[in-house]
Target: Transketolase
Amino acid sequence: MSTSVLDKIPGAKPSGVLMADAIRVLSMEAVHRAKSGHQGMPMGMADVATVLWTKFLKYDPSRPDWADRDRFVLSAGHGSMLIYSLLHLTGYKSVSMEDIKSFRQWGSTTAGHPEYGHTAGVECTTGPLGQGLATAVGMAMAERHLNARFGDDLVNHKTWVIAGDGCLMEGVSHEAISLAGRLKLNNLIVLFDDNNVTIDGYATVAETGDQLARFKAAGWAVKAVDGHDHKKIAAAMRWALERKKPVMIACKTAVSRRAGDKEGDKHGHGYNLMDDEIAAARRHMDWLHEPFTLPDNVKKAWLAAGRKGTKVRKDWEAKAKSNAKFAELSNAMSGELPADAFKALDAHIADAIATQPADATRSCSGKALAALTPTLESMIGGSADLTGSVNTLVKGMTAFDIDNYAGRYVHYGVREFGMAAAMNGMALHGGVLPYAGTFFVFSDYSRPAIRLGALMGAKVVHVMTHDSIGVGEDGPTHQPVEHLASYRSMPGLHVFRPADMIEAAECWKAAITAKGPSMLVLSRQKVPAVRNTGGDLSAKGAYELSAASADAKVTIFSSGTEVSIAIAAQKQLEADGIPTRVVSTPSWDLFEAQPDAYKASVIGAAPVRVAVEAAAKFGWERFIGENGVFVGMSSFGASAPADRLYKEFDITAEAVVAKAKAAL
Amino acid sequence: MSTSVLDKIPGAKPSGVLMADAIRVLSMEAVHRAKSGHQGMPMGMADVATVLWTKFLKYDPSRPDWADRDRFVLSAGHGSMLIYSLLHLTGYKSVSMEDIKSFRQWGSTTAGHPEYGHTAGVECTTGPLGQGLATAVGMAMAERHLNARFGDDLVNHKTWVIAGDGCLMEGVSHEAISLAGRLKLNNLIVLFDDNNVTIDGYATVAETGDQLARFKAAGWAVKAVDGHDHKKIAAAMRWALERKKPVMIACKTAVSRRAGDKEGDKHGHGYNLMDDEIAAARRHMDWLHEPFTLPDNVKKAWLAAGRKGTKVRKDWEAKAKSNAKFAELSNAMSGELPADAFKALDAHIADAIATQPADATRSCSGKALAALTPTLESMIGGSADLTGSVNTLVKGMTAFDIDNYAGRYVHYGVREFGMAAAMNGMALHGGVLPYAGTFFVFSDYSRPAIRLGALMGAKVVHVMTHDSIGVGEDGPTHQPVEHLASYRSMPGLHVFRPADMIEAAECWKAAITAKGPSMLVLSRQKVPAVRNTGGDLSAKGAYELSAASADAKVTIFSSGTEVSIAIAAQKQLEADGIPTRVVSTPSWDLFEAQPDAYKASVIGAAPVRVAVEAAAKFGWERFIGENGVFVGMSSFGASAPADRLYKEFDITAEAVVAKAKAAL
Model:
């Protein structure tokens, strides 16, 4: 297909191909100017995107946050000029022509990869391949859930994804598509940019699988289409909207379409069109306008496509406002907490202060959830096939499933990465507050999504249990050692490791209240109560849990299950005439944010500082100084009952006492 | 199928089912005694394993390290009692009946999950699901490569994998099977334990995909079989051996087979057979022997199966010894370096000392590889579809591919996790030294395999480029911040961040010489030479790169691309009359291993200590103390040219100078 003869007439209604050429030219010119980026995919998928954004996608450029809009996710985020072109052309204020000219420059909205929160209209930060698709699954899940809760009139939209060869090679794509297939998410449509070009050359250098057969095996409806034939693309999209399953359309495209020699070429993926090739491509497209200039008719046609959505949005609003559930939906979408959000939790804390229960902190977390989830209806739980172990299922919750999308518990399967990405997608969609659990050691599997969630500020709670050698018999493959350090060093993520029932409840409250994602790190094994006061002390990140009898000679810092070891050591040291205080450090990042004076008072002035944590020492110097005493792990763990491991690895009150004395 | 009537006759040759019952009973009893573990899979797959280990698998219990043995990987590692039973029954010395009785106890060889290096006969540490399968792909690749290099007479064996529902839900399984399918690894056979039970219940709670269709789409030969019918299992295995592709056999099994009520039940996965159920299962199997006691005929039949392999191994040895390439194979398998391993590299270092080249450290790494790989024929490179960017392809290397398994460069595709796991598998197989590259930020994707490699001590080199905001325009999704801290805290992994051509070569030498896995963290952007001396200083982890003109008032610690910033700051401070020294810290773990006196001398006594690194501060306190000055990142990065980002995030010589002065 090429532009029509009518396109030669200035001012005539442009053909779809001419409209797509506008994307192609903007993309090619922005990349050329930045000397960086990728024109290959935007030029290749320009036709598909034009059909989608002019005929199918439900969006209103004047209200990027309209609740019932379709979600569009550019999973192949390196093709960012595609979405920037679309946002600019359809009239989003977030992307001006100046921004297009400043592609990939400091402060512009046209960052190298699309960034959620940075550019209105970008629904999801993408670039790390495969994750856009996996995040979109979460968006589609959230939509189905809210649809079940609020009805078709308020919530009824699609999630559209553009994914490339790279996305589909990533493992997370498997977790995403098998989960979506299992849940029959008929509101999810993936447009596969089937261009057979990756960075190393033609995709076949590394991939010869049959993607259509693969998606079909996962329970999807599939179809292949010529990705440059506007009519066939439109027919495929119409067909997709009628399926009762998620849909994958493989769009056969040529990378750097209409860029002359680089069209369909393995060198057409990223920035490498030189001046003469840009000129040739412009001639090839009959595009004779100045750089970064659009002809009026093309500009008008694109803006008109955007304006169509404004009417749809207004119609929805008019109907929605008379819907009895509209206020409730708006509340849910706002993410604001109800006034009584923590009433039951506070009562639970009061009870724990009174009864001083011994429990595993995973179980403490489960009890906090039991106090939170009845009030916080937006909370949607789940686990990666470890429901009984991670205490995320609250009694009375039903499974989110094909015949019950209103259910609030997701069986994610053994898909840690897909789970974390789906949670991000739910949070980005809005209206739900997802939390889900797996073993802490397997947070490694979900780490890329945990990072992306931290970068996006997606409000989710990762419940990570079995948090140390306390796992016991399962051995070193299942025993985290370096994980606390590895997450404490991640920007934007709140990490909590509570010590008992009270701290666990406080940490949940802090997680629910905090901006962005949180992680609760919890034990398999039972620990005694270590607190008998309220005061929401965990919110300060670290605090003096137990004072010394006189000017402290020793301060013991600790978190989680080792706080009780610190308390036992304190008793022994005090009995031996050594005034000792104990500091609990449930959240290093919240502590870091406290005023310096508070921090100094918590660190204290004791001549000997000891840290005890069943984890790597890495990072503890900030509490104990470079010459402080550390009682913890310096290797991987081993397989044996937990008590034995604590003894063998010398993480005991006796070790703390002996080392503290030696340092005095 | 059940035991035959002949099995009632004491001393008669046991049926296959009776032999499988031995596995079932040992597994069930060991788990029962440990009150921990999983009898479900070992009992379900006992029949398949019996057929495999008595009729097909090539192994010699008296030589667990025989080079041409088949590799057996229990990807579903929680079923560890299956392999411990097999090792014990076939006569491996590593697993005695006492060990079986001590399942999951401190010091026993029967750890909770199979551990490579801990128990002879265990080829791979498993437990983190999906990874056994992905590791096995690497083993099969190594085998095909060595076969191409040494011929059928020396190297010609299979890799067999048992994988469960959980393994196949994990994303890494997709990367593994699509890579194996692409490479047509006809020496790889996966036995899928198709039992439809996971921890959350029946697998269908989370998975309804068609696994046979899925593997077929990835280019595998597939077949389903009754996993309790010995004849049909054997026929399927014979069929598998004749395919020209990797093979997946879906073995329909019942979890906790022959355990009465729990057979095939969703509660039959893990430990939960109580005393009465154990008794009932024994009655059901007609197994009337004392616990942990085997009837003589069963014992003998199993030992005979093991001994068959001894003969096969001896025949191989007899033939191998007269093969001209035998010594070379033995050398390769031993992992010993040739005497002239570093001759070219040393010359390259001498040249760099003389010429002081400015270069990106990724390019420095590429040049070190060009000096190493011609001599070290075992080195097999690759990348996750970033060949041109990560500098891992040395001129003259050809692609490892279907028609050229002798090739030494692997196009892993966009499969970071699968790549890292495959590298582990190659290293475990032996005979090759794998290295491969991706962007440092995407090390998050491969992290679970990097960890498992560190735990196993698998000798691989992860080449991680684009190591900071120096990535520039690609933005925060592509800019590592917390990654250095996250890997420096991982036990068993050597992390190197070289500053220039000389350090890059030294770090490669250290990585090749070191035990276990290494990671080289390298820059996209060009940096000046900072060293003009030899002396293999990087091997000490940290060292004084540039002395102060007098008693130092300031020490600046740095690594990688920021060392040149440190040097520039030193010049300015010295010019301002402030004696300043610079310490380069290419490897924290190697530094940690130095004598205390050396460490103290490197840390020095300057009153002001500054660290500059374009990464998170986390962990730097060990060099600069808790009140030291840090110049680096405290948030995610942004999209803009690299120079601009260094300025905006204030990681400059000026910032170092100003902050050092303020602290004086």
